[in-house]
Amino acid sequence: MNRRTFLALAALTGATGPLTGCGTNTGTAPGRPAPPPRDPSTPLRIPPLLHPEADADGVRTFELAMAAGQFALKPGRPTTTWGFNGPYLGPTLRASRGDRIAMTVHNRLPEATTVHWHGTRLPAAMDGGPHQLIEPGASWTPGWTIDQPAATTWYHPHPHGETAQHVYRGLAGLFIIDDDQDPQAGRLPSTYGVDDIPLILQDKTLTADGALDGDPLAGPYGILGDRMLVNGTTDARFDVTTGRVRLRLLNAANARVYNLAFADGRPLRVIGTDGGLLPAPVETDTLTLSPGERAEVLVDFDPLDSAVLRTVDNGLDLARGDFDLLRFTAAARLRTAPALPATLGGPPAIVPPDGATVRQFLLNGRDNTINGRPMDMDRIDEVVPVDAVEIWEIRNGGGLSHNFHIHEVAFQLLDDDGRPAPGYAGGHKDTVFVPANSTVRLAVQFGPYSDPVEPYMYHCHVLRHEDGGMMGQFVTVEPGTEDEVPRTYRGTGRAG
To answer: Strand, helix or coil at 251?
Structure first.
């Protein structure tokens, strides 16, 4: 959907009407009346679980269909949205390390789009980047073998110049990867929807009639909404039945940074980030997630507890406003949780070798460029040998906030403006926040998938910036062949 089409559809669905306050406490836009107090009493919507049995050959077959539908982002006010296998968001996919994946994706939308498997280690032709376009009425059948540690990943559209609008309309879902060899698997909460809870965090701007409002490509960041959604639920409540709950948190917002904390100050025990489990739990009072980042946390409850998870304004331009997200209400009797393991294992540290290649990337928010160049679908920016471990230095040279996502890889934060990675930020990741006028250094581990034609992407995951051109492309090839690779794209630009 191009920008003009989006605005026209917004007008047809009533998105030109007056705005009403939809936030909590200080989450009100300047000049607008204070919103009424929220009543977090709507049962939390849990996305359906799609976990097909593996066949005799170890193949799990998934089917997703993207289509428009009607969904009530504001209670009692259905509006036009997009979703996978339903009107909004998508099912939670679940598979295990070693599984062979047979995926079919149908596009029943009125325009071309893609589906990117964010955080999944897989060949570039299966990655679902902007070159794997699925035309309206067409289907895509990627397949790959899962070979990575247990992790919370996700999937979403990635058409160049259109990602912000497609995600904003509702196309996103979680993809949980299990590792049956993980020695701690049985000691962590794992019953989906009971003590293992997906939380997809988004913000929207809605009209009085409940229609999506605003332009995701306007202004410096697009949309920072004042209506908070968790799994598509506003004013959400979750009924706790166990003494410990695992939260799989995904920031699926277009631009907002969530600075998460419980209103009563209870601790969050972080056990995993984008790329898998941490070596050991890390306790914190607040947890910050920029767009695209994930975290797994454990929270303990006593009988009859009532606790509110919030996002708190920390002075950052992308984290404006204090908003209640979700109330947890504990039953009078709770199932006892096993002792929290002191160590979690987690994937090994990523250590750059002596003489590792160092690549430098300058993010410029004034013109949405990386190293002075906007995204060009026909240009290959970097060529990397398979299985390499490199150092990437990401510098934000301006006054706007950015973050940085690299497809297919796992990386660890070496330092942030010369400071070591703090606590939970030291785990395996694929997306990192890069504040204004700062530099982060990453130890980047590339995968084994050689393809001199189909590229992976790296980009800012503030979707307004990504669509505006803050993105580049790289291919991974056999060591020693880097200089033989053309620096122009030679693929078809369509899903195979």
So the answer is: strand
Q: What does the DSSP 8-state code read for residue 206?
A: B
Q: What is the DSSP letter of 365?
A: T
Q: Among candidates 144, 145, 143, 169, which has minimal Cα distance to 156?
A: 169
pLDDT of res. 37? 53
Q: Are 475 and 457 in contact (CB under 8 A)?
A: no
pTM beyond 0.90, yes or no: yes
Q: Which CATH class is domain 358-484?
A: mainly beta
Rounded distance between C-alpha atoms, residue 44 and residue 2, angstroms: 32
Q: Would you tell me which CATH number, out of the four given (3.40.50.2000, 2.40.320.10, 1.10.10.60, 2.60.40.420), belongs to the domain 3-182?
A: 2.60.40.420
* Beta strand 369-370 pairing with 358-364: antiparallel
How large a percentage of the chain has pLDDT more than 90? Answer: 84
Closest C-alpha among 236, 296, 297 to residue 266: 297
State which fold the 186-335 domain adopts. Immunoglobulin-like (2.60.40)
Q: CA angle at residue 153 from 473 to 67, to 5 degrees?
A: 85
Domain ranges of the chain: 3-182, 186-335, 358-484
Do strands 451-459 and 471-477 pair parallel, antiparallel, or not at all (unpaired)? antiparallel
Give the number of residues written for the chain.
Answer: 496
Tokens of 62: 């998934």
